[in-house]
Amino acid sequence: MTSPPAESSIAGMRIATLGIHHETNTFASNPTTLEVFQHSGLQTYGVQRGSEYIEMQRNAQTSLAGFLMAADELGFELVPLIFAATDPGGTISSEAFESLAGEGLRMLREQGPFDGVLLNQMGAAVSEQFPDMDGEFARRVREVVGPDVPVAMTLDLHANVSQQMADETDALVIYRTNPHVDAVPRAVDAARLVVEMARGNWRPEKWIEKPPMVVGIFQHDTREQPMKAIIDDLEDVLRRPGVVSASVGQGYPWADVFENGLAVYVMHRDSEDAARDAAQWIAERAWRRRFELNVPKGPAPEEAVDEALATPRGDVPPGNGPVVLLDVGDNIGAGSSGDSTFLLAEALKRSIASWLQTIRDPDAARACFAAGTGARVELEVGGKSDRLHGKPVRLSGIVTVLSDGRFEDSGTVHAGWRYFDGGPTAVVESDAGPTVALVSSRVGNMSREQFYSLGYRPEEFNIVVAKGVVSPRPAYQPIARRMISVNTPGATSGDLSHFRFERIRRPIFPLDPAARYDPSQGINVRS
């Protein structure tokens, strides 16, 4: 690549941002429709346009907040077009994708021209028509702005990075942490790259390498080995001369798409060979750890409750806080239904008094609202979405709280979300002992404010259930005397052999234990 030409001024530079952000579980029974996007549990406005974007993101810790910060620091004009995000769930309807993408593309045409584009995608979106919805959206954006406008895409660490995503953009920038606490700096990185490319009229050389492996969900925490070793390797590559950016995508396991699995993406200022060597170095070292990166673990629900009850309290926090049971099979943050009853059934059967959790059940919540605060109710709750998440359980008790379900958290939250909406919410203190918050939307258990807003302090309970694997940890690890990942059944089970994959590339480890990795046959992209 030739040396970049003389740089132009940033003054007057206009950079557009837009995105459709979704983590799609193709095995989940709950479809993601346009209405689901419009009533997100993650934000006050499920679909944000213009000033709504700034209102929602300015004081958050999201990628979009990072774009705003970069605009302030670097001096370019950020033009927010449309951003749509909702809770992870089932396959996105064609209507939802075409409506949201169509509106965003019209804005891109009508409000242009632009000097650059920042796309904020999750990287694991699947629509009825497009298994690689993120790549298709990038293709359409490129079609509008043409080949000369730099386009960068930020992605969640769980992205299933595709050939098309790399082909249709000039840069991919992925979170490096799980729990996701670095959305802002990665967004700033992406913005800096776009500004540098626009000013200097240059493009990096890039390489994407995808060894045939899926990383097990129990090994996704980047603070713990063996995943930490891969991130350490990434940090080493980022220090190599000429490397302008590098990312690892863990992949999103519950998507039956060709691109499912680990990806390594490296950008070098002027050498494709250097980018390839760096990407393959990380990929080969990850491949050697593939058995460590796929270790099923976690007790069954009954065993987990036994362990929680047997865990002694300490003398000082967090030793005297709750045992947090992580409901792996009902991981709302990965697209599950939020109404699994396997753990609650154990608590009710044993009459555990100091137990706190949520269950998504709009019908039961409505019944509580009809009865009123202080009323005694007899309810069948949970287990209504499908056959994967247990049967409804009988819940008898007193309605203690009725709420609109909205809460805010300005602290450290997975992926930096700030405004949440659980929909109409009712709390029932059951005769058998457990306290259950009946929510109406699939808002993940990523914030203790969910319970604080209802008048309950999880610190004061013996056992708290969080429906997730890694996303609840920033909220609950500071108060937990112990956290137990429970190998519950469900749409996000840690055992991938429970699922029927039809479109994933084969052979792939661990579905195919004898799979081989040949770097010369990996997916790669050239500038």
Summarize the structure in short:
By secondary structure, the chain is α/β, with parallel strands linked by helices.
How is this fold's topology laid out?
Layout: E1 14-21, H1 34-38, E2 47-49, H2 51-57, H3 63-74, E3 77-85, H4 94-110, E4 116-120, H5 133-145, E5 151-155, H6 163-168, E6 171-174, H7 183-200, E7 205-209, H8 227-238, E8 243-249, E9 263-268, H9 272-288, H10 301-310, E10 323-327, H11 342-350, E11 355-360, H12 362-371, E12 376-381, E13 393-403, E14 406-408, E15 419-421, E16 425-430, E17 435-439, H13 449-452, E18 463-466, H14 473-476, E19 482-486
Helix pairs in contact: 3-7, 4-5, 8-9
Number of domains: 3
How many DSSP-defined strands? 19
The profile of the biggest β sheet is: 8 strands, mixed
The dominant shape is globular
Using only CA atoms, what is the Rg?
23 Å
CATH architecture of the largest domain: 3-Layer(aba) Sandwich
Give a structural overview.
With 527 residues, this protein is α/β, with parallel strands linked by helices. The protein folds into three domains: 11-203, Rossmann fold, CATH 3.40.50; 205-295 and 496-527, Aldehyde Oxidoreductase, domain 3; 301-493, no CATH class. The chain has 14 helices and 19 strands. The protein has helices spanning 34-38, 51-57, 63-74, 94-110, 133-145, 163-168, 183-200, 227-238, 272-288, 301-310, 342-350, 362-371, 449-452, 473-476; strands spanning 14-21, 47-49, 77-85, 116-120, 151-155, 171-174, 205-209, 243-249, 263-268, 323-327, 355-360, 376-381, 393-403, 406-408, 419-421, 425-430, 435-439, 463-466, 482-486. The strands form four sheets. It has an eight-stranded mixed β-sheet. Strands 2-3-1-4-5-6 form a six-stranded mixed β-sheet, with helices on both faces. Strand 4 (116-120), helix 5 (133-145) and strand 5 form a beta-alpha-beta unit. Helix 3 packs across helix 7 and helix 8 (227-238) runs antiparallel to helix 9. The longest helix is centred in the middle third of the chain and has 18 residues, at 183-200. It is globular, with a radius of gyration of 23 Å. The chain starts with 13 loop residues before the first strand and ends in a 41-residue tail after the last strand.
